[in-house]
Amino acid sequence: MFLGLLLLPFLMLPIILLILIATIDTRQWGLFSQIRVGQYGRLFKIYKIRTLKNEPHHLGALEHSATAFGSFLRRSKLDELPQLFNVILGQMSFVGPRPDVVGFADCLEGEDRIILNVKPGITGPATLKYKDEELILAAQDDPETYNRTIIWPDKVEINKKYVQTWSFSLDLRLILKSVF
Questions:
Q1: Do residues 70 and 22 make contact, with C-beta atoms less than 8 angstroms apart?
Q2: Domain locations in the chain as residue ranges
Q3: pLDDT tens digits along 91-102
């Protein structure tokens, strides 16, 4: 939270500019929010820069629904800058398992629920491994099934290991990998 407050003065102008550009680009309000599952299974509203056109889209076809500017934001991860506010509000941390939509993390059972003991993060080991998740899903015949049967279980294992072996130095390495 403290680091988030320190970064806020430096990132506020870029966040506002990106929201304005996204508003023009997508022809809808450039700040997007969505309910996600957080620490201890609590629901919270995550903030991102809007990247998708106002049209129906489905898993695996997000790149087709994203504007050119939106695709750039997604590739560069700049669409996630507003999550700084989630960090400041204490809903997220800089590093941890990504917060999932309802229907995934909230359905964890047994030892897998250890993931919910920590705050979700802007980046983390599963985030780094699946940085090109949209491209992976777009290449599948059935992206929804592939996500639920291959990617999601792998993310759970990666995130369990992260929680079980957490250290400040691990978080520092993950932040550096994310930035560079």
A1: yes
A2: 2-179
A3: 999 999 999 999
